Prior knowledge:
Mean pLDDT: 75
Radius of gyration: 31 Å
Helix content: 40-55%
Largest sheet: 5 strands, mixed
Amino acid sequence: MGTQGTVLVSSALYGQGGEDQNHPSMLSRKYDMDTDEDEPNFDTITINVSGKRFETCVKTLERFPETRLGNPMLRKKYYNSTREEYFFDRNQEAFHAILYYYQSRGSLYIPPAIQEQVFYQELDFWGISPEQPKGENGFTLMDDQDHQKQPHEFRWGKVQKTMYVFLNKPKSSFGARIWASVDIFVILCSVINLVVESYGNKNRSPGDTDTPYFAVDATCVTFFSLDIVLRCLVAPDIGRFFRKPLNWFDFLAIMPFYLELSLGGFMRTGSMNNNIIMPFKILRIFRITRVLKLIRHSGRLILMIQVLLDCVYELAMLLVIWLMGVFIFGTIMFYIEHEQEGTEFKSIMHSCWWSVVSMSTVGYGDMYPKTALGKVVTSVLVFCSMVFLALPMTIIVSKFNKAFETLKKPRRKNGKIKN
Length: 419
């Protein structure tokens, strides 16, 4: 059955015998419950995981009756009547997080010593599915460094929490899916209106409110404003809300409309100088940021952005190599071609533009070498550019595959656990 291990009272997360009473995993409580003939005749049970013993309340496990530990019939075959304990030949370190899942009513973290793939295999065995929120607090997957942080309290209680989940978790309910679908529809309408408005309206004043395009834009902005105001009001942490880049994109998407609306009278009467109006016309470019609102509704896009942020050093290396190649080959090509009659390589900066086009393998044809040596240098440049661009890309693709595998969490077939 394995060696006799140290008994961990309901919650000593790292086997310290309960030294840290402020640890979030110290959630032991006494419960009265009915027991059957297969259960020990007390309200706690002992779980032996490969020789390390954990003790917890039965009621704690029964918070999740569809899991292996929470279902008496599923854990019955692992019971050792001689030792009065349940024995599981599983990963000990992973079980710390598994037990914390029951104690915290649905929060889960990945221990630092466990590989993610191994941890998800443990989740699959214990019958815990990240795909399906469970318990009072729902499912929350946290890093180990964050699992000790207390969650921000909702100022308005359950009403605020319900609204927060409704606005930020489209899969939480049917109504949330409807709201998210309407948001996507309004975004598409706004973008289409922006494109259609560009036909035949080049001279339209930014303050002109007598067009159907303005009416459509006003309707879309009203919805966007309502959405961002509600999400700001129900956010448990206002500071964190304003630190998220996607929320700033939401502000940028509606800002040009309100600026035009507030200054529309001055623009229509011509009381403002054209030099003053021009910056406000340029601000209308920010309307295109409404397209970025679609990122919020796509887990795959968010995953790609996270991967790119994780690869910032690799991308910086790629940029440095690219700039070096542009300058080196641009300078070489300038001294080879600048004396030729009718040459386009008039300066090193002109030659660097040629390097940019050639290294990206675009080849506009506006500049090209005329000498034999110049053509040889161009061939070397194209070959080197393919190599330089390919090396960092392999690292980025590798990180993306790893992040994508992390996203593919284990699932239970038909809501049942494999015995």
